[in-house]
Amino acid sequence: MIETFIWAAGNRDTNALLACLAEPMRESMARQLAEQGAEEFFKSQLWIPCFRIVDRKDEGPDEVTLTVELGPGLSNPVKFRRQNGAWAMEP
Fold first, then answer.
1. CA-based Rg of the chain, rounded to a whole angstrom?
2. Nearest to residue 47, comparing CAs of 17, 82, 19?
3. Of 57, 64, 56, 68, which is closest to residue 81 (Cα–Cα)?
4. pLDDT at res. 52
5. Cα separation, 20 vs 59, whole angstroms
6. How many C-beta atoms surround the C-beta of residue 71 within 10 A?
7. What are the sequence ranges of the domains in the chain?
C-alpha cells in the first residue's frame, strides 16, 4: 500500500493515489486536487523517495499500524484499515 502511494505520487496518478486513502482522507485530498489542479497539487507536496517499515502492530483483523522510517531518525506511525476488501491509509 505504501509502495503504491509513493508510486502514484511520483507518477502523478491521481486515481491510484486517491485509491490508497481511507474515505475521510480521500475526500479531503480529492477536494485539494479539484481546487488546486493536479499539477499545482503535486508541485506543492513533499514526496518520499524511499521508506522502510521498522515496526508492525496488528490491531485486529482489519486494522494495522506500521511504523515507517522516512530517513535516519524520521519514523512515523501510519494506520491502515481494510475497507471494502482493500487496505487504505487512515489520517
1. 13
2. 17
3. 64
4. 86
5. 19
6. 11
7. 2-89
pLDDT in tens, 37-88: 888 888 777 666 678 889 999 999 999 999 988 778 888 898 999 988 888 8
Q: Average pLDDT in the 5-31 region?
A: 86
DSSP code string of 49-91: S--EEEEEEE-STTEEEEEEEEETTEEEEEEEEEETTEEEE--
Taking the domain 2-89, which CATH number applies?
Answer: 3.10.450.50
Grid cell listed for 30: 480529492
pLDDT of residue 49: 66
